[in-house]
Amino acid sequence: MSRDARWKVLLDLLVEQGRLDVEEAATALDVSAATIRRDFDQLAEQQMLVRTRGGAVVHGVSYELPLRYRTSRRAAEKQRISTAVAALIAPGEAVGLTGGTTTTEIARRLAARPDLASGSPALTVVTNALNIANELAIRPQFKIVVTGGVARPQSYELIGPLADGVLSQITIDTAVLGVDAFDVVHGAAAHDEDEAAINRLLCERAQRVVIAADSTKLGKRAFARICATAEVDTLVTDGAVTRETAESFTEAGVELIRA
């Protein structure tokens, strides 16, 4: 197993469990304890984890893996969700896209749609995600509007008050949000308060709000609230969502689409 592949497995295990011991990780990856110690030390230098005596832990409530280490987690579910969300967007719409792995896939699905291959513009995309803007900027039929702000390296998103100047001057048809948690009672939320603030602005400027979230994020809470459940029009999730959870959202007035 290559070092990059080993690091990805270690980080995935760490996110799931919150803590890893050296011996436990060595057994799981079938490598020596010395190799795991070196991996932990190097990942700690990159601020990907916190080193402890005999192991490693996540950074805490605001801990979040950089985007490049999250792209393959639940990849099949995210692909189905992104395809379903992209199908909801009509040609000519102004669409707001937040940062994240699922919204990045949605942007790619929109770029691949034959009916959006031409137009003036075929879509207007408003985003605070540098990677999404970079991928779509080569599509001449798309009008790309990037918010201002300071780049957050974990998610490639622009955050901070500079974004207000752009978002306060526009209106969009559909805001598509990638969230860290969505609960019927507590609403949609993110781990980072600055990301939540930008997402909240997008919701306020949109006629329709769509949340794209796999089933593991439903019924969960996160640190910073984005919006109330009543402000969400549509939730697109995967088929693993439980019947009870699905019914709770539909009863709250949210259209639920299983992808």
Overall description:
It is a single chain. With 259 residues, the chain is of the alpha/beta class. Helix content is 36%, strand content 24%. The protein has nine helices and 15 strands. The chain has helices at residues 3-17, 22-29, 33-45, 75-87, 101-112, 130-136, 164-167, 193-204, 243-251, and strands at 19-21, 50-52, 55-57, 94-97, 123-127, 142-146, 150-152, 157-159, 172-178, 181-183, 187-190, 206-212, 224-227, 234-237, 255-258. A hairpin with a 4-residue loop joins β7 and β8 (157-159). α5 (101-112) runs parallel beside α6 (130-136). The two termini are 33 Å apart.
Question: Concise description?
Answer:
It contains nine helices and 15 strands. It has 259 residues and is α/β, with parallel strands linked by helices. The strands form four sheets. Strands 6-5-4-9-12-14-15 form a seven-stranded parallel β-sheet, sandwiched between helices. The protein has a three-stranded antiparallel β-sheet with strand order 1-3-2. A three-stranded antiparallel β-sheet has the order 10-11-13.
